Amino acid sequence: MNNKSRITSILSTPNLDASITGWPSFELSELELGGDLDFPLPTDLRLGHLAEKVVATLIKSSTNYEVLYENIQLVENKQTIGEIDFILSSPNTDRLIHVELAYKFYLYDPSISSELINNWIGPNRNDSLREKLEKTRNKQFPLLYHKAAKPLLDQLGPKAISQQLCLLANLFIPYQSDAHFPAAYQKAIKGYYLSVEDFIRLDHSQKTYYLPQKREWGIDPAEHENWEGFDQFHPHINKSMAQKQALLCWQKHGESYSTFFIVWW
What we know:
The protein is of the alpha/beta class. About 25% of the residues lie in helices and about 30% in strands. The chain has helices spanning about 5-10, 20, 45-60, 130-140, 150-155, 185, 195-200, 230-240, and strands at about 65-75, 80-90, 95-110, 120, 160-175, 190-195, 205-210, 245-255, 255-265. Strands 1, 2, 3, 4, 5, 6, 7, 8 and 9 form a 9-stranded mixed beta sheet that branches.
């Protein structure tokens, strides 16, 4: 995995805004960064924690924000009750900000509900955008005001702390869908998804494929170099479908590249 490609992909991932989340957004695009965005990345982190590491390093590299606290675990009666992702200061404005971060992949299933917000689910249907927002509202942001956080707040002094959400989203819609989405969602749509049966029926004669590791999800497929034909790619699909594991795939067709999920459901 190319570190620079991974960093750039996270930095450029759209952030779902307040019209969707109900919270002010912390926008990575507002970071004042200089120089070449390339730095070492750990090789032993899962995707979500890797994204946190990238964002933390970007904020620390900026000239308009400072990381005061990062990944602070709150403990009560020897039990961890939660974790605060970031508390930042903005020297230019003398503000303190509590930021919660998430890097997510959601697929749109219109059969779930008539309400758009309810229809974004994880690739294996075991999480959802709605659940994430409820957890943020009911658990993550209230941690700042829990009594276990009082020693932390005492160190910060009397300044007020605002709360912002950085929900970096990669959205996927059904194959050949003609659905229309509000701009706040549209900007985050990265590709499509389809069933394994529909994928197999497609014309693969001029196409090659790559199955990225999860640490590579979200990277621009145009930066990948080694591709394989359908016959070599097909066995990977059968194994994952049997295990009920959706696959994120990259496709190269001439000079065109696309990202899509093959789902088992």
